Amino acid sequence: MDFITWVGMGAAVGGSEAVHRQRLLDEEAEAEERLEEFYLDVFCDAKSRKKDEVHDTIVVLKDGKVRLWPKDPKTKLPAKGPDDQDAPHPLTGFYLPFPPADLPHRPIPYTPILGLVSTVPAQKASSKSKPKLNWLYADRTTREVKYGPRAEAKKHVVGSWDWTEDEQGLTLNDEECLVAVEEESGGYGWAVYWDKDDDALKDMGLGKEKRVLRCSLERRLVEEQEIKGLDEE
User: Which domain of life is it from (predicted)?
Assistant: First the structure.
């Protein structure tokens, strides 16, 4: 066997192993338990007089942003608004690998970026159509956690989202680094931000202007629901 043939065989074997490894990584990212729908409840034990406005709330989608909202004590879903407005849409999410075609080139094998999708508030004009899915992402500039179609999400931090070792707490880039920021007073003005530097957003100036509370967003499985007929945007 000449040297060139030997090198060619080695490359073929290496390529085959890489493809096999990639298949295993893809299967892990698409495991059945990651497709289980869940709500997110908020746990907060911060030493703040505002703690009770954050602790035991539920995560909702409202006006393009991911926010916190008081729960209805009976349903454990979002309560009506302060002036009896309709309750906002609860984040109802599951994990899904972000399409690699929309990400920078990655050599094989690579670990898939695990995205987080949620059903979104229905539009009145299309209330009879299939529920839509949007991707959650952290805005690269403002650190706000938002939701939107894939074309918008891919411009920002789309993951990897995952869970803590006990499969309860939500993580971004392997850290429980999400905080609640009081954008408006009154108990209904808290939004979720990405505390990338673990400094309560002080480095970017927001933590000096607004109240920031550390919290944990914890999964609560949606009972007996199936993920069917959902259209991802």
Answer: Eukaryota
